[in-house]
Amino acid sequence: MSSYSIKSLEQYFKVYRKSIRKPKKFWAKIAENNFTWYRKWDKVLEFDMEKAEFIWFKNAKLNITKNCIDRHLANRGDENAIIFEPNDPDEPARYYTYSQLYAEVSKMANVLREQGVQKGDRVCIYLPMVPELAFSVLACARIGAIHSVVFAGFSSNALATRINDCTCKLIITADGGYRGTKTIDLKRIVDEALVKSPSIERVLVVKRTGQEIDMKEGRDRWLQPLLDEAPATSMAEVMDAEDPLFILYTSGSTGKPKGMLHTTAGYMVYTAYTFKNVFNYMPGDIYWCTADIGWITGHSYTIYGPLLNGATTVIFEGIPSYPTHSRFWEVIQKHRVNQFYTAPTAIRSLAKEKIEYVRDYRLDSLKVIGSVGEPINEEAWHWYNDHVGNKRCPLVDTWWQTETGGIVISAIPFVTPTKPTYASLPLPGIKPVLMDELRNEIEGNQQIGNLCIEYPWPGIARTIWGDHQRFIDTYFKTFPGKYFSGDGALRDEVGYYRITGRVDDVIIVSGHNLGTAPIEDVINEHQTVAESAVVGYPHDIKGNALYGFVVLKETGLWRDRQNLAKEINQLISDQIGAIAKLDKIQFVTGLPKTRSGKIMRRILRKIAEGEQSDFGDITTLVNPEIVEEISRERV
Ligand code: 6R9
């Protein structure tokens, strides 16, 4: 186990160097010692970066659920695997031990088999954050079906597109889902989607809200009666290391969503190893990741990573603001959470509220706090570090992507000193490189460039479902021989990485490369500003100029706009330089955001450029109505 858990900075450097010098040996040792295999591999890795082909642990046989569940039964069968915290705080939490998880997943696996699902079939899962969501995911993995979880906030159109792209045979959904004070009519949305999705033969429905729904004769079944009849033990299908585990859709900057495909062994080894180290997970710890399982973070760090390590993982059905802005802190206090992992957008929304909301809770169980999903701005970093981590818990800013399968750049708590807004150092096995526009590697520190990874790691996605050419073109063509993340990064004087945002967000103004994130950081420091987004637009003289969209806090709403704009520019000028001053500032009531909380810059860019109607696909936004408002009031 020595290479599995990193305990000091010195050890990190040692392990890191070894992992880069001899990656195959490094991963083989981790895979060898920490998992159950039906058969071990003939070869650790075979790959071709140009063709984007990766075979990890060639010819090994395994089942990931044996490792997530069965392996823990002997030693921790009676310990909690899952704690379910419902949307309504008055509804009792539910606890599932590893033994109970085994029974639940087995029943679900048997139901799926009985409904005709076979190894290799695609199963769509469109569920709220209820335990059945985790059971469904694991049941698919148990029988070798490929799960495709679609976030239950997506519209019927988005759902239909995803079902059709990978031709799912069966869908698991619920009558409805709770989200704060709202209920979402999931079954109705599924019914709408299925008009356009002929591949679905069977719909299994979880009863959650008890609301009235239509059941289509011959197609739809309530899940519970089927589970009640199903045996509580099950055989785990023997899977090849490279057999597909799941498809998860991620939006590209253009065109239809990309169905990223992850396979079995590499993903397992990578998520298990990174979970252990990035969260400093120790046996008995209670871990909570707030991400919905509809996103990669929920796949890798609510389900697979924690369960592979025998951890207790919290599944939270609700939202941070219901019934009050204290909900996160209340849940941490209630379940004595040790590791807490959330997104900057949630932190910023809570930091806007009165400090009492967090101050009145006992957060002393926390050991490590984490951030993921977008660059965490300086102000949010400090608020999270001071008020949640109490300056006592390392804050790990974890950089990764749906495509990387697991975290690739992050501090290791109690090992890597943290630095606000820096994801810090690469994890073992990851060799980041910065590339310039001429495709040359940028050597040395204090450099900014396109962030690539030089060598394959076990968690890397294997393809885009049905479109390997797009996989090659998107990730392996721009910088031949390397994986291109699409993000930009700055490497500081000691080699720490700071993610500057999507590369399309690097704006060249009068020949200067400006990342949008640092500018937004400064703007957000202004006392009246809640949030901001900066984009570039063409300018006759400078090449590009900067356009800032600024959302004000309640306290800023009544201020003189012209003065406010001046103050903001003064702040930028003071902190970054006059070169980064905004040519235009527009005060808006909100920013267009995807359902995972990412600002859709593509749209803001179009507005800044003067486009009035053609904004492309905006159906994946939580607030599509904002687009028209911003466009109408363009300055
Ligand atoms: C895990 C996840 C990936 C994109 C990625 C980057 C942004 C994620 C970040 C971060 C700065 C971090 N991103 N983590 N940017 N710092 N710690 O979010 O996957 O939904 O595929 O998004 O998110 O731009 O390229 P995914």
The hetero molecules present are: ligand 6R9
Oligomer: single chain
Portion in strands:
15-25%
Low-confidence stretches: none
CATH architecture of the domain at 506-632: 2-Layer Sandwich
CATH class of the domain at 506-632: Alpha Beta
**Percentage of residues assigned to helices:** 25-40%
Give the full name of the CATH homologous superfamily of the domain at 506-632. ANL, C-terminal domain
Layout of strands and helices, then pairs:
Layout: H1 9-21, H2 23-34, E1 43-48, E2 53-58, E3 61-62, H3 64-76, E4 80-85, E5 94-97, H4 98-114, E6 122-126, H5 131-143, E7 146-149, H6 156-165, E8 170-174, E9 177-179, E10 182-184, H7 186-194, E11 202-206, E12 220-222, H8 223-229, E13 239-240, E14 244-250, E15 258-263, H9 264-278, E16 286-289, H10 296-308, E17 312-316, H11 327-335, E18 339-342, H12 344-351, H13 356-359, E19 368-371, H14 378-388, E20 395-397, E21 432-435, E22 447-453, E23 463-464, H15 468-475, E24 483-491, E25 497-502, E26 507-509, E27 512-514, H16 516-525, E28 529-539, E29 543-552, H17 561-575, E30 584-588, H18 601-608, H19 625-632
Parallel strand pairs: 4-17, 6-7, 6-8, 7-14, 8-11, 11-12, 16-17, 16-18, 18-19, 19-20, 29-30
Antiparallel strand pairs: 1-2, 3-13, 4-5, 9-10, 14-15, 15-23, 21-22, 22-24, 24-25, 26-27, 28-29
Helix pairs in contact: 1-2, 3-4, 3-10, 4-5, 4-8, 6-7, 9-10, 12-14
This protein binds ligand 6R9.
Structure characterization notes:
With 635 residues, the protein is α/β, with parallel strands linked by helices. It has a domain at 506-632: 2-Layer Sandwich (GMP Synthetase, Chain A, domain 3), CATH 3.30.300. The chain contains 19 helices and 30 strands. The strands form eight sheets. An eight-stranded mixed β-sheet has the order 12-11-8-6-7-14-15-23, with helices on both faces. A seven-stranded mixed β-sheet has the order 5-4-17-16-18-19-20, with helices on both faces. It has a four-stranded antiparallel β-sheet with strand order 21-22-24-25. A hairpin with a 3-residue loop joins strand 28 (529-539) and strand 29. Helix 1 (9-21) packs across helix 2 (23-34), helix 4 crosses helix 8 and helix 9 (264-278) packs across helix 10 (296-308). The longest helix has 17 residues, at 98-114. It is globular. Ligand 6R9 binds next to helix 10, strand 24 and strand 25.
